[in-house]
Specification:
Layout (H helix, E strand, L loop, with lengths): L7 E5 L2 E8 L6 E5 L12 H7 L3 E5 L17 H15 L5 E5 L1 H13 L6 E4 L10 H8 L1 H4 L4 H13 L8 H8 L5 H12 L4 H4 L12 E6 L8 H9 L4 E5 L6 H4 L1 H12 L3
Parallel strand pairs: 3-4, 3-5, 5-6, 6-7, 7-8
Antiparallel strand pairs: 1-2, 2-4
Length: 277
């Protein structure tokens, strides 16, 4: 497994949140948000590359994900994640960072901005969960039967998670990369946490904010994997059309896990966007 350790921690109402920063402390701040069922590890190539370009880069594992706290009864809903993100920005003293958000990190960043007044310099949305309807047939099956899936034998659960996570990639994940993405979900605590986060996934948290997208008044770019089978690229076209002035960038050869399928192409698109104006 490739080494990826988050050295810092913040106590929140949803448990301890692990986070870290890379690069020049005086550099322009960029915050990277992961999605589900992933962790900040999806940025393990992008984060140091942005830091090498002079940015101060923040990464974090959302409550219930990666190295952050996981426990019975934990609220890991999109509503709570948006609140925690706004709290983290205040803790970091970042009044107006640029934000790059993947998958349901997109909803988290949008909720924090639109509902909790978090201010961003720029916002890059990478294959985000942002528009209804969302959730694959598998996702809906698990959500409706989470308590049953929690009781799967460990080996069967592990195989299911590996297959599910792997299906987000078009290129195919290297074994070490897949191991690192799956590892937080494979012990007893992780297994229940995996099904907990799916059980709490609710489209109403994007429905709350979807009507507000035309009110966004900051530079936004929407990057989408051309081969995304989790959320079809047409959703990127729809989302960009709702946000005034938004750019749309298709990333060829990439599935839903764009940061791992096409890190060089995504990095190039992000650097261009972050340096504009």
């Amino acid at each position: 497994m490739e080494a990826w350790r988050l050295r810092e921690s913040l106590r929140t109402a949803s448990g301890d949140v692990r986070w870290d920063r890379f690069g020049d402390p005086d550099g322009e701040a960029v915050v990277l948000l992961h999605g589900t069922p992933f962790s900040s590890y999806v940025w393990h190539e992008i984060a140091p590359a942005l830091a090498a370009e002079g940015f101060q880069v923040f990464v974090w594992d959302m409550p219930g994900y990666g190295a952050s706290a996981k426990y019975a009864g934990q609220d890991v809903s999109l509503a709570t994640q948006g609140e925690v993100f706004a709290e983290l920005l205040a803790h970091w003293g970042q009044a107006e960072p640029s934000v790059v958000a993947h998958d349901f990190g997109g909803c988290v960043s949008l909720r924090a901005h639109l509902l909790h007044k978090a201010s961003y310099r720029r916002l890059a949305l990478v294959d985000p969960v942002a528009l209804a309807p969302w959730g694959s047939p598998f996702f809906r099956l698990v959500r409706e039967n989470a308590q049953v899936f929690e009781q799967l034998p460990g080996a069967l659960h592990g195989a299911l998670v590996r297959e599910y996570v792997g299906s987000a990639s078009h290129q195919g994940l290297r074994p070490g990369t897949l191991d690192a993405l799956v590892a937080p979900w494979t012990d007893e605590t992780g297994q229940t946490a995996f099904y907990r986060q799916i059980a709490q996934a609710d489209q109403r948290y994007t429905d709350d904010i979807q009507p507000l997208y035309p009110t966004l008044r900051l530079p936004v770019t929407v990057c989408w994997g051309a081969e995304d089978t989790w959320i079809p690229p047409v959703k990127g076209v729809e989302l960009a059309s709702l946000i005034p002035g938004a750019q749309l960038r298709s990333i060829p050869g990439a599935g839903h896990l764009v940061p791992l399928d096409a890190p060089a192409l995504l990095l190039g698109a992000l650097l261009t966007f972050l340096r504009e104006g």
